[in-house]
Write a structure and sequence with these properties.
alpha/beta, Rossmann fold, five-stranded parallel sheet, 11% strand, globular
């Protein structure tokens, strides 16, 4: 394996993150404010995605329920990709496209937030979850890339779209992970103060 090839991955990742710094800081800050307000009002955050984005949804929920970098009480978050019995029942009895929307309908309440993650912005089941969230009077924080895909067509004016300025899946996912860490840190800063232990 070429060391240069590996180093190029690091350079490419850093370049996309630096480009995203300017365009994504404001929507990420708005997402933090929205999520904190929901949590402070006794609401919760539901998260969904497919593949690597499902792993990101689970990562986010784990950081809220457990802790991020500082000790605090657990915060209510649910990764909708984790219950295999629910997922397979819905996919088998209805369709794979409904695996998240059915859960949003069952678990979502007005004032909750849906963290919808799709690298391409075209995941049909994530788009269906966004539509269900709107029907449940939830706010959506959407993470995407590749121009936002069809996801941007279903987002409302009150939703927040964090669209990574890249067409490469790996680079988009790397910025999504950084965004998730920013969300967790921002929520903690609003809850516990800016100072870190």
């Amino acid at each position: 394996m070429s060391v240069e090839r590996i180093q190029q991955h690091f350079r490419d990742s850093a370049a996309v993150k630096l480009e995203a710094l300017e365009t994504l800081s404001m929507p990420i800050a708005a997402a933090i404010d929205t999520m904190f307000a929901a949590l402070a009002n006794g609401n919760r955050i539901l998260a969904c995605g497919n593949g690597g984005s499902a792993a990101d949804a689970q990562h986010f929920a784990a950081e809220l329920i457990g802790r991020f970098e500082r000790e605090r009480p657990g915060l209510p978050a649910v990764a909708l990709s984790t219950d295999t019995s629910v997922l397979t029942a819905i996919a088998n009895d209805y369709s794979f496209e409904q695996i998240y929307s059915k859960q949003v309908w069952a678990l979502g309440q007005p004032g909750d937030v849906l963290l919808a993650i799709s690298t391409s912005g075209n995941s049909a089941n994530v788009i269906a979850a966004i539509e269900a969230a709107h029907e449940r009077e939830m706010i959506v924080v959407a993470l995407s890339g590749k121009g936002g895909g069809r996801m941007q067509e279903v987002l409302s004016d009150t939703d927040i779209h964090v669209c990574v300025p890249s067409d490469r899946t790996a680079r988009i996912q790397e910025v999504h992970l950084l965004t998730i860490h920013c969300l967790c840190d921002g929520i903690d800063a609003m809850l516990l103060g800016e100072d870190r232990d």
